[in-house]
Design goal:
Elements: H1 3-27, E1 35-40, H2 45-60, E2 65-73, H3 83-91, E3 95-99, H4 102-109, H5 117-135, E4 139-141, H6 146-160, E5 169-171, E6 178-180, H7 188-198, H8 214-229, H9 233-241, H10 302-306
Parallel strand pairs: 1-2, 1-4, 2-3, 4-6
Antiparallel strand pairs: 5-6
Helix pairs in contact: 1-2, 1-7, 2-7, 6-8
This protein binds iron/sulfur cluster (SF4).
The site of iron/sulfur cluster has 6 residues, from helix 5.
InterPro entries: Rossmann-like_a/b/a_fold, TilS/TtcA_N, tRNA_Cyd_32_2_STrfase, tRNA_thiolation_TtcA_Ctu1
Family: Belongs to the TtcA family.
Region (Disordered): 267-314
Length: 314
C-alpha cells in the first residue's frame, strides 16, 4: 500500500471510529453536560482506543464533559508501571494510577490451576467504584467493544441458559454509578488497526499467568470466522440485540402467552404462522466492507439508518 493510500485508509478508520462511538453515545445517552467520565485503562488496545476516541470527540462535542483516565496497578509480576504514567503525561490528560496488590490476594485465595478471573474481577470492580467515588466521577467508561458483547451473548446462551448480552449502559451492581461502553458499536478489528496506527504502548494481558478463558476464545474464533465468511453477519447480530421481538421468543414474563387472545382482525404485519421463514435480504455493503448506512433500510436496520451523530459529524 502506498503511503498516500495508507494515510487515506487511516483517516477513514478514524472517521468511522468517531462516528460509531458518537452514535452509541447519542443512542444510549451515555454522556451529558457536566459529566466527569472516568475512563478505565488497562493498557490493552481497547481501552487505549476508547480514551483516544473520547478525547477526539470531547473537542467537538456539543456538551462539555471531563475525562479522567484511571489505571489499577494490580501488582502483577512484571507490570511495567512506568508505561501508562508516561503515556498519559504526554497526552496531558488528568489521570490517576491506583495501586492495589490484588494479585497476591488472588494467588493466596485461589488454588493453583483454577481460574483466578472471577475473584480478580470482583476485587477490581470494588476498587474502581471506590476510586470513582473519590474522584467524583459521574460515569465509568469501559473499553468493551461489539465483539465482546456478541461473545457474551453466545456464552450466556451456550453456558448460562440465558438470552443475555453485555449492555451498552448499566447501573453498577452497587447501584451508585452509571457504567457506559462507548465502543459498543465498534468491531474489534477496527480497534486492532487503530492501535497499530496510533502505536499505543500495549501492556500484555498475560502477566497474571491466569489461563485463557477457553470458552470465550472459542466463541471469539467462531465469530471471527463468520465475519470472514459472511461479511455483515456480526453487524446484523448487533442489530438483532437492538430489535428484540418478545412475542417471538419464549419468555413468559416478557409476553402474555398464557392469556393471549385472538383479535379476529387481519394484521398485515402479523405473523404468517404457517409460512416458510421470511426471506431476509442480504446486508448492503459499503466499499470498505462496512454495512452501508445509506442502503435501503431493512428490518432491523431502520434505527441505524436514521441515527444522527452530532458529536461525530466530521
Ligand atoms: S486475566 Fe488476570 S488480570 Fe485479567 S481478570 Fe483474569 S486474573 Fe485478573
Amino acid at each position: 500500500m502506498t503511503p498516500e493510500k495508507l494515510a487515506f485508509e487511516n483517516k477513514k478508520l478514524e472517521k468511522r471510529l468517531c462516528r460509531e462511538v458518537g452514535r452509541a453515545i447519542v443512542d444510549y445517552h451515555m454522556i451529558e453536560e457536566g459529566d466527569r467520565v472516568m475512563v478505565c485503562l488497562s493498557g490493552g488496545k481497547d481501552s487505549y482506543g476508547l480514551l483516544d476516541i473520547l478525547m477526539k470527540l470531547q473537542k467537538r462535542a456539543p456538551v462539555n464533559f471531563e475525562l479522567i483516565a484511571v489505571n489499577l496497578d494490580q501488582k502483577q509480576p512484571g507490570f511495567p508501571d512506568h508505561v501508562l504514567p508516561a503515556y498519559l503525561s504526554k497526552l496531558g490528560i488528568p489521570y490517576h494510577i491506583e495501586t492495589q496488590d490484588t494479585y497476591s490476594i488472588v494467588k493466596e485465595k485461589i488454588e493453583p490451576g483454577k481460574t483466578m478471573c472471577s475473584l480478580c474481577s470482583r476485587l477490581r470492580r470494588g476498587i474502581l467504584y471506590r476510586v470513582a467515588k473519590e474522584l467524583g466521577a459521574t460515569k465509568i467508561a469501559l473499553g468493551h467493544h461489539r465483539d465482546d458483547m456478541l461473545q457474551t451473548l453466545f456464552l450466556n446462551m451456550f453456558f448460562g441458559g440465558k438470552l443475555k448480552g453485555m449492555p451498552a449502559k448499566l447501573v453498577s451492581d452497587n447501584g451508585e454509578f452509571m457504567v457506559i461502553r462507548p465502543l459498543a458499536y465498534v468491531p474489534e478489528k477496527d480497534l486492532i488497526r487503530w492501535a497499530e496506527y496510533r502505536e499505543f504502548p500495549i501492556i500484555p494481558c498475560t502477566l497474571c499467568g491466569s489461563q485463557e478463558n477457553l470458552q470465550r476464545k472459542q466463541v471469539g474464533n467462531l465469530l471471527r470466522d463468520w465475519d470472514k465468511q459472511f461479511p455483515g453477519r456480526l453487524e446484523n447480530m448487533l442489530h438483532a440485540l437492538q430489535n428484540v421481538v418478545p412475542s417471538h421468543l419464549m419468555d413468559r414474563s416478557l409476553y402474555p402467552f398464557q392469556t393471549l387472545q385472538t383479535t379476529g382482525m387481519a394484521n398485515e404485519d402479523g405473523d404468517k404462522a404457517f409460512d416458510a421463514d421470511d426471506p431476509v435480504p442480504p446486508p448492503a455493503l459499503a466499499d470498505d466492507g462496512a454495512l452501508d448506512d445509506e442502503a435501503a433500510p431493512r428490518a432491523g436496520n431502520e434505527t441505524r439508518a436514521r441515527a444522527v451523530i452530532p458529536i461525530a459529524a466530521h
